[in-house]
Amino acid sequence: MKKSRRSFLKAAGVSAVAIGAAPAIKAVAVASGGAATNASAAVKSRKTEALSAHRWGMVIDTSKITEEVAEAVVEACRKAHNIPDFNHEPDQEKYPDTRPVDHKQEIKWIWEEHYQHAFPEMEDEFLAEKFRQLPFLVTCNHCKNAPCVQACPTKATFKREDGIVLMDFHRCIGCRFCMAACPFGSRSFNFRDPRPFISEFNPDFPTRSKGVVEKCNLCAERLAKGLQPACVEASEGAIVVGDLEDPESEVRALLNENYAIRRKQELGTEPSVYYVM
């Protein structure tokens, strides 16, 4: 009898707790459902506004690249992606143990190069002087057959279905196999903590740490928001990004109407960056 009574009281107590908790559980369920609905809506909204392509590509009109435009493009990329400038004096109050760099060191996503270095295989003794003087902007070529992707042992370097070659900074172990595999010199290695050398932080993009490789990501984070890459906005019409597989796209129109070249085509990596000459 005592056992039955004890069992009854135990069951009743559990029921009471369940009944008392029901409104709270319902409220949580509703809130969670609402959050899920809002999240779904946000994802759908992002997908709706995002810029997409079957294969992203870039066309650079060399006739429109002046020294001023080139500098503006490099600076826009630097600010958008927290690229360190090792010529910048670190804040000694914030980073008291950081000393200035005593040797040349660069982290490059997009940078200026002379013709003979950008296209060494196409160098000609009778090349027009204007090409020798032009600043050529070079960057990651987001190759169709990217050797860096094949060389990376941790899949920190990977290629999306739309052709953009990206990096997962957290998976990078700093082996630099990707740097050895890239024939364009488009990757940089952080031999030291880059964060003290960032003069102006962009909170919308992650910083990197010592021992990590980095490179151009074609502003994938901006494309996802429906924005053009930072370099395109700063180029005054000299750089166009679009779908190489869409015959109606602006990049295809430029390639149909102009003579364009790519870097080191003979290697078979199929670069996605074209230069209108």
List the helices and strands and how they pair.
Blueprint: H1 2-49, E1 56-61, H2 67-80, E2 110-113, H3 115-118, H4 129-133, E3 136-139, H5 147-151, E4 157-159, E5 165-167, H6 177-181, E6 188-189, E7 213-214, H7 220-223, H8 230-234, E8 239-243, H9 250-257, E9 260-261, E10 273-276
Parallel strand pairs: 1-10
Antiparallel strand pairs: 1-8, 2-3, 4-5, 6-7, 9-10
Tell me what you see in this structure.
- The longest helix is centred in the N-terminal third of the chain and has 48 residues, at 2-49.
- The chain folds into two domains: 1-49; 56-276, Alpha-Beta Plaits, CATH 3.30.70.
- The N and C termini lie far apart (98 Å).
- The strands form four sheets. Strands 8-1-10-9 form a four-stranded mixed beta sheet. A two-stranded antiparallel sheet has the order 2-3. Strands 4-5 form a two-stranded antiparallel ribbon.
- By secondary structure, the chain is α+β, with helices and mostly antiparallel strands.
- The protein is built from nine helices and ten strands.
What structural class results from the helix and strand content? alpha+beta
Number of strands: 10
Biggest β-sheet, characterized? 4 strands, mixed
* Uncertain residue ranges: 1-46
Taking all Cα atoms into account, the compactness measure Rg is 26 Å
- Helix and strand string, N-terminal first? HEHEHHEHEEHEEHHEHEE
Can you tell me the CATH architecture of the largest domain? 2-Layer Sandwich
Could you state the oligomeric state of the chains shown? single chain
